[in-house]
Amino acid sequence: MLDPPRRRGGMANLDNQRLDAQAQGLTRSAALIALVFLIGVLGYLWVGGPEHDLLDAIYMTMITLTTVGYSETIDLTNNTEGRIFTMALLVVGVGALAYFFSNLTAFLVEGNLARIFWRRRMHRMIKALDHHYVVCGAGRLGQHMIRELLATERRFVLIDHDEPRARALLTELHADFPIVIGDATDEEILREAAIERAVGLCAAISSDKDNLLIVMNARIIKPQLRIVARCTDQKYVNKLRRAGADSVVSPDVIGGLRLVSELIRPDAVTFLDTMLRDKEKRLRIEEVVLQPGSRAIHRTVGSLRRDPIDGLLIIAVRKADSDAWTFNPSDEFRLEAQHRLVVMSSPEARRAAEERWK
């Protein structure tokens, strides 16, 4: 037996297949009514003969299908064919109307009309995205990720199977970001989140097996995508990497490192916490990549530091094909294509640097 849909705040989880089936049923029943109405109009044009026009035929069809019983504009008193046609139209028409209203009632009672409009709005938002991130999972870990993406003004799409939880985030965070309701392990759901146009994906579901499948599907769909995966059980770390994850993060390991840092370097941790929690400055450790053709290529770090970009501090530089970092690079350090600059900045300063140096 299938598990019943979970509810939160009176709303059941969105079943895309059921919603699509109900929408198709409503469309079919509406099309059936339109077909019956057309047959009625054509039939009454035939029954009425040349002395009756299209308006008379439409009127007769309307009073027949709605069973209101107003006076007939086409006299059927001595018209056997007309009476037989009217009886047949009544039977078929009443059945079609009953079918339509039963579909409409079920659709409205479950709130699916509003859901369809909401889902279409999400699709329009996703269609407008490019170079965005995909977050799979709106659990506790996923919610922290979403807050950080919002704080640093990154564009992203959330994928989660729990509709009430996902939609509640929009209200809780006073934000408006696109959401795809569905199973992130499904390749079609990933495509619905426009993964082909994304620059990064994070598999943050609580199940390591699900994250493994998400990583595999994402890597197949877009080989050059940067993929980060959550991992609870250490035995899955290598499996996730072999499946295509560029980086694997264990919340337990991160938590342990944070605890030790609080113990042995409390002031450094306090500084970082203050930086992350300052809602006015919104300082972060950011990354700027110098793509081929960038105006910053062949310039020195000192010249970049003299650019009129407020609130940006260059911390380190690394080549894309090297693991060696140059920390606190000197003003004479000359930049090349694919150099990666690690900076401390606000989102506005990061965007200004990207725009100036692109």
Report on this model:
The protein has 358 residues and is α/β, with parallel strands linked by helices. The chain folds into three domains: 13-110, Helix Hairpins, CATH 1.10.287; 115-255, NAD(P)-binding Rossmann-like Domain (Rossmann fold, 3-Layer(aba) Sandwich), CATH 3.40.50.720; 282-357, Regulator of K+ conductance, C-terminal domain (Alpha-Beta Plaits). It has 13 helices and twelve strands. The protein has helices spanning 16-48, 54-65, 80-109, 112-127, 140-151, 163-172, 187-192, 208-221, 237-243, 251-264, 266-277, 301-305, 347-357; strands spanning 7-8, 11-12, 133-136, 156-160, 179-181, 200-203, 226-230, 247-249, 284-289, 312-319, 325-327, 339-345. Strands 5-4-3-6-7-8 form a six-stranded parallel beta sheet, with helices on both faces. A four-stranded antiparallel beta sheet has the order 9-12-10-11, with helices on one face. The chain has a two-stranded antiparallel sheet with strand order 1-2. Helix 1 packs across helix 2 (54-65), helix 1 runs antiparallel to helix 3 (80-109) and helix 10 crosses helix 11 (266-277). It is elongated and about 105 Å long. The chain starts with 6 loop residues before the first strand and ends with a helix.
